[in-house]
Amino acid sequence: MAETDDTQPKAPPSLIPILSAANFVIGMGAFVVVGVLEPLAEDLQVEPARAGLLMTIYALAYAISSPLLVSLTGRIGRRRVLFFGLATFATGCLGCAVAPSEGVLWGARVIAAFGAGVFTPVSAAVAAGLSAPERRARALAAVFFGITLAQVLGIPVGAFIAYEVGWKLAFWLVVLLALPCLWLVWTRVPKGLRFQPVSLSDLGQVLRQGSLMLAVAFTAVFLSGIYVVYTFMAPLFAVQMGFEGAMISALLLVFGLGAVLGNVLGGALADFIGPERTLALLCLCQIALLPLFSMLPLGLVLVFALVLAWSVCGWSFMAPQQARLISRAPEVAPVILSLNAAAIYVGAALGSALGGMTLEAAGLSALGVSGATVVAVALLTLWVARPRA
């Protein structure tokens, strides 16, 4: 996947931490909507289900644009592509911070999605290309540590700011954090860093492989089940548990801690027992945990333990799934990773939409059961797409 001749510049040891830091900014900007949903909906004077469409529209824009943009930029140096993607994302977040209306806010979210759809899969391809096969899952986990760290710090901090000061300030914080990352990407990523180029024809080739696309689809279905509940965590716990701003921020913090633990666990577990078995185990855990959200209210300690375990099992999937896909099609790794990244946001969009429909049709108490049902479908998808001897 990576060029191996002497013209390939050597990546500095700081490269993966830099990519991880930038993904932290992207993770915060992408998912901060979850934490600010209630104050945002109140400010826009819309129902929470409608405000949740900000996550859906971001996800759809990401899903549609990411494979195309990654393929179109396949022959451009990785430093320029990474810088362009992060700069576009920051511009979109700036638009959210100054948006005077709901329509402008939606448009800004689309721009941010375009930038994230370039940066995140390309950063993953760079990490995978510079790693030995036996350490690839852990390298990918290290790059995506930034996104999981955003769950720990970024989203809870954004939620706290939104409840105490205003939701737009949360987006201003994302813009400010993006500026040093842009400088680091431009000055520390090697100028001539290139990998095997990919093109639109490579994208078409992957899209025509049914088994490979079914393997990618696992990401979308698995995350759909999680986002049925995750998107509406704030109103769910506000109504069912009586939580207010500080408690919801604390709950998001616990969720984020679980995401970090899951990110590390998933990479190590995939290297130990294999990606397929790891993903099957995670599905079974989600199917057992999600229905408990339909049993709220529960004791305070039990609630926080539930959210922690649910997050660990949810965010452990990223590294094994990416390692699984790269092993299937190493020659077009950037394309397959962009499709997988797109599937992440397809899952977020579908889960958010399904959660909204569940909310309107059956109420908050039905979200957990609905999510578990979707994850059961993900387990079936994993079994059908498994490689045959």
Brief summary of the model shown:
The chain has helices spanning 15-44, 48-51, 53-72, 78-98, 102-129, 136-164, 167-188, 200-207, 210-230, 233-240, 245-273, 275-289, 300-315, 318-328, 333-362, 367-384. It is mostly helical and 389 residues long.
How would you describe what is shown here?
The protein is mainly α. The protein has one domain (15-384): MFS general substrate transporter like domains (Growth Hormone, Chain: A, Up-down Bundle). The chain contains 16 helices and no strands. It has helices spanning 15-44, 48-51, 53-72, 78-98, 102-129, 136-164, 167-188, 200-207, 210-230, 233-240, 245-273, 275-289, 300-315, 318-328, 333-362, 367-384. The model is unreliable at 1-6 (pLDDT under 50).
Question: What is the secondary structure topology, with strand pairs?
Answer:
Elements: H1 15-44, H2 48-51, H3 53-72, H4 78-98, H5 102-129, H6 136-164, H7 167-188, H8 200-207, H9 210-230, H10 233-240, H11 245-273, H12 275-289, H13 300-315, H14 318-328, H15 333-362, H16 367-384
Helix pairs in contact: 1-5, 1-6, 1-7, 3-5, 3-8, 3-15, 4-5, 4-7, 5-6, 5-15, 6-7, 6-11, 6-14, 9-14, 9-15, 9-16, 11-12, 11-13, 11-14, 12-13, 12-14, 12-16
Task: Note the main attributes of this structure.
single chain; 389 residues; mainly alpha; Growth Hormone, Chain: A; 16 helices; 0% strand
CATH architecture: Up-down Bundle
Count of runs of 4 or more consecutive helical residues? 16
- CATH H level: which superfamily? MFS general substrate transporter like domains
Cα shape: globular
Largest sheet geometry: none
Instruction: Give me the Rg, rounded.
Output: 20 Å
- Identify low-pLDDT runs: 1-6
C-alpha termini separation:
25 Å
Per CATH, what is the topology? Growth Hormone, Chain: A
Integer count of domains: 1
Instruction: Write down how many β-strands occur, each being a DSSP E stretch of 2 or more residues.
Output: 0
Strand content: under 5%
Average predicted confidence as pLDDT = 84
Q: Can you write the helix and strand succession as a string? A: HHHHHHHHHHHHHHHH
